[in-house]
Amino acid sequence: MRSCWAVAGRIGLALCCALVAATGVWASEPAVALVGARILSVDGPEIQRGTLVLRGEKIIAVGPDVEVPEGVERVEVRGATLTPGLIDVWSALALDQAGGSAHPLRRAEDGFDRYATAELSEALSQGVTAVYVSPIGPVGIRGTGAVIRLVPAGGGEAIGQVLKGRAALSIDLGSAARPIARLKALNGIRKQFRQAIQYRKSLEEYEEKLAEYKKKLREQGPKKKERAGKRDDESASATAFGAEPKKGEEKEKEGEEAEELKKPRRPNRQPRLEVLLEALDGRMPVRVSAYRSSDILNALELGRDFSLDLILEGATEAHLVADRVAEAGVPVVLAPLDRDMRRRDDLFRRFAFDAPAVLAGAGVRWVVGSGMQSGRRTRFVAMQAELAGGRGARGAPLRWVTADAAELLGVADWIGRLRRGLLADVVVWSGDPLDPASHVLRVYVGGELAYQAKGHGEKGKGK
């Protein structure tokens, strides 16, 4: 009995120690309360004079009547506006512009320069906390894109953390090329998808043959013993009458059995095609860069023929075929809207400022990104949303570059809103985020202060 009490005591002591340790870790996580701000959560009604509390890398409270826990750093931000971090759904930020060959195994995060701190800090200073980047390269299947959050690391010497790798398969139809080259690129893309389908078929055939082989192997077990016993009896009988066993016949039978039970050979692994199978199975969306209406229609046909979860990029002439895009249920990531109309090259000759409004009117889901021309354009993503709103597109521009962007990228469970339990990517603005006179005061990424405007340090800060 005494030993039972001793064991129970040791278990209780261990549990107490575990609870104390867990409490210590929780208490040691940095916590900040942003107090007195106007809060645009994008997830509900606007909150006046609200409080948002960050602990560790997540938001733990947001609302008008939130009590600030004891020991939490209190930052007074009265007169300021809080929003989710902005998301650029199509960016070249900090990417190696040298590019490379088009290949399904290329990964955008491998070309993301986490030490391009000047460019990355510039994006943070404009409220951008996450970007989608895709591999830069020639036309064809370029590789896979990634969603990267601008999280400081290494004492600020590096910036960037992959939130979602293999976020999409990136394809470029080469809209800037001549017609024959574009058709050749499209045929090459189709050929690769057909190869992937054939590869899957060979794997399925292998699995069927392997299952049959195992079945025969199980059946062969008892039969083999029976045949062995029979051969022993025949051998003994032949010996008794002075006859030799028919070794040739025995070897022939054994050879037939061995041939019958030959294990099937698995097809050689094709990692390149396995990436394409993810897209074919709907486990990864496919983002197709297509500007011309003819290329857009080709992309829609490609998506239909191979049952792809398609997203259009660029789509300068999407408004000309808006009904077809809407019928296919394909979302669009529009190219930047701040174009100089004095220079209208062949690729953008049919560009229209009211394209967002036309697409929305047709029922097409759309967002706008900064594009692949320059990584520094990411800082203007809020302006792109404002331009879309100013050209007749109905909706909330802030939502287009936060919640809607997160949903398109498949990361809405982590970022894009100010909600309890989501990652603490928060921007503190001096005024309304879409007011040109407003500027960014602070940016938190994962609860960590990633940017702070000059002169906004200790002012208004308290405990």
Explain this structure.
With 463 residues, the protein is an alpha/beta fold. It folds into 2 domains: 18-85 and 416-463, Urease, subunit C, domain 1; 87-240 and 254-415, Metal-dependent hydrolases (TIM Barrel, Alpha-Beta Barrel). The chain is built from 11 helices and 17 strands. The chain has helices at residues 2-28, 117-124, 179-240, 247-260, 271-280, 293-306, 322-328, 355-362, 381-390, 397-400, 403-409; strands at residues 31-39, 47-55, 58-63, 73-76, 81-84, 86-91, 128-133, 140-153, 158-172, 286-290, 310-314, 332-334, 366-368, 426-429, 440-445, 448-452, 461-462. Strands 1, 2, 3, 4, 5, 14, 15, 16 and 17 form a 9-stranded mixed beta sheet that branches. The radius of gyration is 31 Å and the shape is globular. 39% of the residues are buried. Mean pLDDT is 85; it is low at 1-9, 11-26 and 458-463.
Pick out its properties:
single chain; 463 residues; alpha/beta; Urease, subunit C, domain 1; TIM Barrel; 2 domains; 9-stranded mixed β-sheet; 8-stranded mixed β-sheet; 11 helices; 37% helix; disordered N terminus; disordered C terminus
Could you outline the blueprint of secondary structure elements for this entry?
Blueprint: H1 2-28, E1 31-39, E2 47-55, E3 58-63, E4 73-76, E5 81-84, E6 86-91, H2 117-124, E7 128-133, E8 140-153, E9 158-172, H3 179-240, H4 247-260, H5 271-280, E10 286-290, H6 293-306, E11 310-314, H7 322-328, E12 332-334, H8 355-362, E13 366-368, H9 381-390, H10 397-400, H11 403-409, E14 426-429, E15 440-445, E16 448-452, E17 461-462
Parallel strand pairs: 1-4, 1-5, 6-7, 9-10, 10-11, 11-12, 12-13
Antiparallel strand pairs: 1-2, 2-3, 4-17, 5-14, 7-8, 8-9, 14-15, 15-16
